[in-house]
């Protein structure tokens, strides 16, 4: 029988799991959790949209801004890096903001760290939808990333795109270089490669990580692990 977990051990395990989650998150932090991509409802017209300084629909400036970087709506000056000093006073609204980000169009608070780092690291830089090619300024909605090809998607296209992105065209199961069945697929280029052609000459591959696509460098998947049509499955059994 396993030993009963003590409170301390339970706590340590929980912490470990959390750290693992954090590490994973940093590499591929969900766009949905970012303050610059948070849901906002316009104070004036009540339409739902992505967090932004001015309403996408009625252009009215939002009186309760949320920082695009740290997500705060109220400055308590805890970190003490405010470029505007407000000793002992909490600030909200216009007295809390310092800038508008050019990329995500949301307010950035007057904290030095947020002001300095947000513009260079804004996660919505180049957030152009892979389907309709609209950028952050051209639609009001939130931004998503396709879980297969990792491209940016707008709210309108996210479901449809992902449904089709998961499946490769029948014809493209063949290796791009030799027409044999390709065991490795790149979901970004929508191409497959065989064992011989997925590896480029003169490059050392790490056995533990997935082989990058020879064309774009995106991680390849094993074709057989993808969601396949029945016709392909037949194909697959026939060849193996
Ligand atoms: Zn509005
Ligand atoms: Zn901030
Ligand atoms: Zn402050
Ligand atoms: Zn931004
Ligand atoms: Zn779109
Ligand atoms: Zn995709
Ligand atoms: Zn090949
Ligand atoms: Zn590729």
Protein described:
The chain is an alpha+beta fold and 240 residues long. The chain has three domains: 32-124, no CATH class; 126-166, Herpes Virus-1 (2-Layer Sandwich); 170-201 and 208-239, no CATH class. It contains four helices and eleven strands. It has helices spanning 7-27, 112-121, 158-165, 230-239, and strands at residues 39-41, 48-50, 74-75, 91-92, 97-100, 107-109, 143-145, 152-154, 184-186, 191-193, 221-222. The strands form five sheets. A three-stranded antiparallel β-sheet has the order 10-9-11, with no helix packed on it. It has a two-stranded antiparallel sheet with strand order 1-2. It has a two-stranded antiparallel ribbon with strand order 3-4. The chain is globular. It starts with 6 loop residues before the first helix and ends with a helix.
Topology, element by element:
Layout: H1 7-27, E1 39-41, E2 48-50, E3 74-75, E4 91-92, E5 97-100, E6 107-109, H2 112-121, E7 143-145, E8 152-154, H3 158-165, E9 184-186, E10 191-193, E11 221-222, H4 230-239
Antiparallel strand pairs: 1-2, 3-4, 5-6, 7-8, 9-10, 9-11
N-to-C series of helices and strands: HEEEEEEHEEHEEEH
Strand order of the largest sheet: 10-9-11
Number of helices: 4
Structural class: alpha+beta
Whole-number tally of structural domains: 3
Structure summary, number of beta strands:
11
Helix share, percent? 10-25%
Cofactors, ions, other ligands: zinc ion
Main β sheet profile = 3 strands, antiparallel
Radius of gyration: 24 Å
Protein name: Zinc finger protein
Pfam family, one: NOA36
Biased composition (Basic residues): 1-13
GO cellular component, one term: nucleolus
């Amino acid at each position: 029988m396993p030993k009963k977990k003590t409170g301390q051990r339970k706590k340590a395990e929980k912490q470990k799991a959390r750290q693992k989650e954090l590490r994973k998150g940093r590499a591929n932090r969900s766009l949905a959790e970012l303050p610059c991509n948070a849901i906002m409802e316009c104070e004036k017209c009540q339409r739902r949209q992505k967090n932004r300084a001015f309403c996408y629909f009625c252009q009215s400036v939002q009186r309760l801004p949320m920082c695009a970087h740290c997500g705060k709506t109220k400055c308590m000056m805890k970190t003490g890096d405010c470029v505007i000093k407000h000793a002992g006073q909490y600030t909200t609204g216009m007295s809390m903001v310092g800038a508008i980000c050019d990329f995500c169009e949301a307010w950035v608070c007057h904290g030095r760290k947020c002001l300095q780092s947000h513009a260079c690291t804004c996660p919505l830089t180049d957030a152009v939808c892979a389907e309709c090619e609209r950028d952050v300024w051209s639609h009001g909605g939130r931004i998503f990333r396709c879980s297969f090809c990792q491209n940016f998607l707008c709210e309108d296209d996210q479901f449809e795109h992902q449904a089709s992105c998961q499946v490769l065209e029948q014809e493209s199961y063949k290796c791009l270089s030799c027409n044999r069945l390709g065991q490795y697929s790149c979901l970004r280029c929508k191409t497959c490669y065989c064992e011989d052609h997925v590896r480029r000459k003169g490059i050392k591959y790490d056995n533990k990580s997935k082989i990058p696509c020879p064309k774009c460098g995106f991680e390849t998947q094993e074709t057989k692990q993808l969601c396949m049509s029945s016709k392909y499955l037949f194909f697959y059994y026939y060849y193996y």
